[in-house]
Structures are given as C-alpha cells and as structure tokens.
Amino acid sequence: MLQLVKERKNIAEQVSEMANPVEALWEVELLYGKHPAYTENTYAVKFTTKLEGHASKCFLVIDLRDRFDEFLRDLNVFGSMEKVELHQTIDYVKYLKINGIFRRVPNLLSEMEGSAGADESLELFSLVADAVLSEPDAFPTVSSDAYKNGVSSGVILDSEQYAEKYGENAVGITTEALLEILDLDGGTRDARFKEIARGWLEQGLLLKRSNQVYLASRKCTAWQLKMHTCQPGYHRFISESL
Questions:
Q1: Beta strands of the chain (E only): which ranges?
Q2: Res 129: pLDDT
Q3: For 137-178, how does the pLDDT look when each residue is reduced to its tens digit (9 = 90+)?
Q4: Alpha carbon of 46 to those of 59, 105, 227: distances in Å?
Q5: Are 95 and 4 in contact (CB under 8 A)?
Q6: What are phi and psi of 84, to 5 degrees?
Q7: How far is the C-alpha of 176 from the C-alpha of 222, rounded, in Å?
C-alpha cells in the first residue's frame, strides 16, 4: 500500500489511504504531463489488466465521465470492468489526483496511443533504411528530374535548397511506400503505424512534421527522411512526419 503524506500550509498531516477498488483485476496509475490539446499539463489514467496479455489503455482524466460508455467498452475488449466498478475507479482517480499520487511523463500522447519498444523500433527503422538504400530506381534524385508522382516511392532531396532545409542525404518517402515496407494493412494499420512512429520518436529518430515537397510544378506528399551514415555499414534516418 502507498504511504501518503499530504502537505497543506507547510504542515505534514497523515491522510487515510483509499484502496484501488478494482485491484484484483486492474492496475490503475495516474499520469501527469503534456498533451497537445491543452496548454497546461494535465492528467491521464492508465488501466492495465491483470488478465491474460496484460494489455493496457490510457485515457485523459477530464474525459472519463463524458466518454464513460466508450471507455467502459474499450476496457472490456481485453479486460473485465462493470459500470459500478468504473464509477468507483473514477472516484479513486480523483483521490490520486487530489493527493498528488502520480507519475510524471514528458508526453501523455505517447502513453495514450502506445509506441513500439526500443528494439522493435530500431529493427523497423533498419528495415525502412535498407529498403530506401537498396532501391535507387524507386528513389530518384531531385537533380535527375526522374521523380514521377504516383509512381516513385520517394525522392532523394539532393538540391542545395533541400540540403539547406533538411541537411545532406535527405529523402522524401511516401506514406504508401512506408506502409508497404512495414507490411501494414488491415483494420489496425493506422493504430500500428502510430505505435511505430512514436517508437521512433522516443528513440530520437523522428523530427518535426512536413507534409509536402514541391518539385518544380509537381507536389509530392511524403515523409522527409534524413539518411545519415554514422559508421560503416550503419545508417539512420530521421522522419519529418507526425
């Protein structure tokens, strides 16, 4: 059980503890950090089932009552939660919030949407890097003027203009090409894609968002990737999407 001491007016007073009402089936953790929807830091609650798979789901605390039915359904996809139990858990979350029992995180969105692990992120990153480097015909240079919208998988941004903007060895790669390289399809494609992208972000492989590259009169909607030769036989890229 957590030992809680609440400070009020510089006086430490012992506060009675409130138990997790769904402790038998769920781990409930309060998180505190930045979220793009709000200018101030805010709270999210992470539910982790103790059933098979130990899956988890994270919601903004401010949305718990307004989206109650939606969140209840989501939790029952992989765990077991009754209406009365979720109501009790919301009260427990309020207790955690009031008494300052939370874990600080830099980005709530990465917790809420999930991310690929470090090893998997690097493995998938290498997969994309190898595909780009091994298919020069699919990734012509800007200077060659061989890029064909809807045909090419991307373009190597070798002009002085792009070198100044993105650095040397920058590559634009279409979303479709990335999805194909990563072999993503089906109903979970978008969610899985976000997990991978956020895993790259956590590994320092993603930079800022850039949706379009203009090539003379043509426009290429793409990810901008930076291929850097770090050491013999090793390459890394930084995507400028998301």
A1: 5-8, 11-14, 26-34, 42-49, 56-60, 103-107, 154-157, 170-173, 212-215, 218-221, 223-231, 234-239
A2: 77
A3: 998 888 888 888 788 888 877 888 877 776 666 777 777 888
A4: 7, 12, 36
A5: no
A6: -65, -35
A7: 9
pLDDT of residue 203: 65
In degrees rounded to 5, what are phi and psi of residue 12? -85, 125
Query: In this predicted structure, what is the pLDDT of residue 2?
Result: 42
40: left (phi over 0), alpha (psi -120 to 50) or beta: beta
- Long-range CB pairs of 44-51 (<8 Å, 24+ gap) are 44/108, 44/111, 44/112, 45/93, 46/111, 47/75, 47/79, 47/81, 47/89, 49/25, 49/75, 49/78, 49/79, 49/80, 50/24, 50/25, 50/26, 51/25, 51/78, 51/79, 51/80
Report the distance separating Cα 97 and Cα 210, nearest Å. 37
Closest CA to 189 of 176, 173, 202: 176
Cα–Cα distance between 160 and 170 in angstroms, integer?
11
Token couple for 32: 């505190």
On whether the CB atoms of residues 174 and 147 are closer than 8 A, the answer is no
CA pair distance 14, 107, nearest whole angstrom? 31
Instruction: State pLDDT tens for residues 86-136.
Output: 999 999 999 999 999 999 998 887 788 766 666 777 788 788 778 878 888
Contact 55, 49 (CB under 8 A): yes
